[in-house]
Amino acid sequence: MSDSFDKHSIIELSDAQSNKSSQEVNLTSIHVTGADKFSDKFLQKGLAPLLRTSDSTIGDLITDAQKSASFFWGTDCFQNVDILIDKDLDYKQPTHSMLSTEVPMNLKAFVNLVHYRLKSVQFGSVHDSIYGHLLSLTYTNRNTSGIANYTHLAATVNKLDAEKGQTILGTFKIPMANPINKIVANFSARNGTVSRFQSKNQVIGSAQFGFERHPLSNPSGIDCSFFGGLNFAKRSILNVADSASDEVKTYAGDSLKQSLILNLNFGRLDCIPASEGAFPLEGFKSNLRAEYTDLPFMSAQGSNNDKGDHFEKLEFNGAVFKSFLQDNITFGCGIGCGNIRNLRPSVSDTVHFMDKFYVSMPGYGTLGLNHSFIGGRSYFSYNFVLYTRLLFASKKSPLRTYFSLSGAKLCQNLDDLINPETNINYLKSTASTGITYKVGDYAHCNIGYHWPLDVTDVGDIHPGIELNVSLYGDF
């Protein structure tokens, strides 16, 4: 008899005990394999439901085993969790039950844990024939201190034509009593130059402190995660050019933003197995993100008031994929939209240009960096793509040709976004075709040709062939 807890987790009883859920039992021992990288404290916490000393039945034991499996799954350290419960024929000590005169059955448990790679150092490079390149170095440890604490550190050197600089990132997660709940801290520091911001140097430091919940997969296979926390960001806009716009000059010098951030991911994707989750065949994914800066305790010192940063920011992105003809053809449809609403227009109608939206568009670069205005407060984007398998390529290979139509509209307010008459000035569209190859976070190669369909701003378009290669190696 087996009770399936998750598609990779099995609680199994030997046949002799299959139909005796009310039979009282005595768990004599627990044998664990695959946990040598974890501390005794961690294992005792995970096995606590099975280690209880009170009388229990086989049904209780299955429930306790499921609780232990749930604990190990919640840490995000394991790809397989199997628990086998069998008779202990070698246990000779007599056992008695406090609940009845029935002699409890002696059982033993075998817990087999198969963990992911727990530590890695990754070096990567991204090269784009139009926009430039960047280099990155990351360190990831899923099991810091042997208790499933998560540590991720990254350093990036950005040499893109429109944006140059260096960035350091850090993420730390500490599991709570139920490890699907985690305390999260994120840190970042950036020193660089975005030429469109009309200043020689922009220095940004930020920190986030919050709570993350990532429930285990339900029977439908839908994956969901939630993050909520406080964000603190200090931006320094230095050496502003005399010719800079009033918007840039407004934020010259230092400014501090304090905000509440909420983030929800929701979806289910079935991917080409060889792509390691990078190439969807079926399913959907979605992300909803909200930021709110006008919390009562954040207004007391006026740290936001001096720059007028009182706004709420809402953004949604989603995509749906469907395959046909035995996965030889895959159709994808994606949309994105966002809006920033100023909460105190009577005080100031400004929003820091670093908080605005910037939309990446094939054939146009980044909308908001190549317009007459900097960034936008409202946007809408779409992407329709058709992937087809090459005749000479295996169906299991994550190599596909594609044909796509994408577009975006970036505006300074919601009224302009929803007004069809403004499409001629703000709506950009591109048709593309090419070949792409994707494998996890390790390799992505794309060669394509872009036809920008709007040519009113000739200086902003980048038609023609684009080669993009991303390669990452683990050490």
UniProtKB/TrEMBL annotation:
It comes from the Eukaryota. Its main location: membrane. GO terms for cellular component: outer membrane. InterPro entries: Bac_surfAg_D15 (IPR000184). Residues 228-434 form the Bacterial surface antigen (D15) domain. Keywords: Membrane. The keyword Membrane applies. It is found in: Membrane. This is Bacterial surface antigen (D15) domain-containing protein. It comes from Dekkera bruxellensis.
